[in-house]
Each structure stands twice: as structure tokens, then as C-alpha cells.
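Researcher: Sequence recovery benchmark, item below. Answer with residues only.
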């Protein structure tokens, strides 16, 4: 089973994805995490993208496509991927569909965590204290939320039309959300 988890930055996507990975023995493909590691390791790519990421904008579709293809093409991860932070626009959604079909795979489930902007602001500020991410401050949080709404909401509509979408109320406790997600996955 391959699945995608959507939600605005700070919605708890990463936490829920880690939970699903452990419980259902999947592999997480978080484009944001991979990109942040490139910056941390000061690679050529890292140097190229650091100012883009720190300003809250999107890295180019071509850059993320390469990262995603190297994951999808690896037999080890076949039909066991949870996509976190990808796809983020319709171009990426179409690319993902092509890449998966090239490697004999598809998306089986799409989860959307819904959380209000007020809750996001609160959580991002908490996370900043814990993780010290350069893109976690209120102004950038609002910008990332708005970018998410503008670019990613149409992608969610795309999966809704394919009847793959399950909506999750992300305002509840981590445990309640874990339980609901687990119940949905066990039905697939
Ligand atoms: P995230 O950890 O998913 O919130 O991603 C952090 C940052 O990495 C984003 O604000 C973007 O700058 C970049 N990024 C992550 N995933 C993508 C993607 N699929 N397309 C473009 N940029 C991305």
C-alpha cells in the first residue's frame, strides 16, 4: 500500500506519518526532511536550495522529482511508501502518478489532516523551541499556510475526485488521530 498524508505545515503530519511507519511497517518519504538534510550536510543541492526553503517558498518540481524517483524506483520500498510533503501542486501530482505507474505502483489512500490557522500558529511556535527550524516563525508560518492552501488544496481535490481521500480532524489529540488513521488503514 502507498499512501499520501496531507495537512498544512504544523498539522502533525510528520508525527502521524512516523506513527504509521512504525505500526504498519511502511517507509516515509518526506521531501522536506530530505531537503533539510541536504542543507545540513552542506551539499551542492543544499547550498542551492537553502534560501528558498528558509523563505518558505517551494523548491523546483524537477529537484523534488529526482528525489522522489530515486525512492520509488528502489524495490525495497515498493508499495510501502507514505508520502509526506509530496505532491504539493498539480504538476507534482501528475508526475507522481506517472512515476508510480512506471514502476508498477499506485496510490491506495490519501489522508488529509484538517487544522485551523490559529492552531497552526500555536504549534509552529512550540515546534520552533523544540526543533529550532529556520522556517518556523509566525510570519513564515502564515506564508507557508497560505502557499499550502493555494497550491496544495487543488491537489487534494484531485485525489477526492479519484475517491481516494479520507478527511481527518487534526484538532484532536495525537492518540485519537492515531487510532482513526489505523482504523482506516486496516480497512484497505
Ligand atoms: P515540509 O517539511 O514538508 O514542511 O517542507 C519544508 C520546505 O521544503 C517547504 O516549505 C519547501 O520549501 C520545501 N519542500 C518540501 N517538499 C516540497 C515539495 N514537494 N515541492 C517543493 N518544495 C518542497
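Model:
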Amino acid at each position: 500500500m502507498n499512501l499520501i498524508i496531507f495537512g498544512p505545515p504544523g498539522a502533525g503530519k510528520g508525527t502521524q506519518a512516523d506513527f504509521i511507519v512504525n505500526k504498519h511497517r511502511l517507509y516515509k518519504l518526506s521531501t522536506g526532511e530530505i531537503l533539510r538534510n541536504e542543507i545540513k550536510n552542506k551539499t551542492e543541492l543544499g547550498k542551492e536550495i537553502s534560501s528558498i526553503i528558509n523563505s518558505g517558498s517551494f523548491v523546483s518540481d524537477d529537484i523534488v522529482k529526482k528525489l522522489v524517483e530515486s525512492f520509488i524506483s528502489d524495490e525495497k520500498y515498493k508499495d510501502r511508501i507514505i508520502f509526506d510533503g509530496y505532491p504539493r501542486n498539480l504538476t507534482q501530482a501528475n508526475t507522481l502518478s506517472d512515476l508510480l505507474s512506471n514502476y508498477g505502483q499506485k496510490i491506495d489512500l490519501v489522508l488529509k489532516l484538517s487544522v485551523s490557522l490559529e492552531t497552526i500558529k500555536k504549534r509552529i511556535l512550540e515546534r520552533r523551541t523544540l526543533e529550532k527550524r529556520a522556517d518556523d516563525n509566525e510570519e513564515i508560518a502564515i506564508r507557508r499556510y497560505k502557499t499550502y492552501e493555494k497550491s496544495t488544496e487543488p491537489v487534494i481535490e484531485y485525489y477526492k475526485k479519484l475517491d481516494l481521500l479520507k478527511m481527518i480532524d487534526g484538532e484532536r489529540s495525537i492518540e485519537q488521530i492515531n487510532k482513526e488513521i489505523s482504523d482506516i488503514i486496516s480497512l484497505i
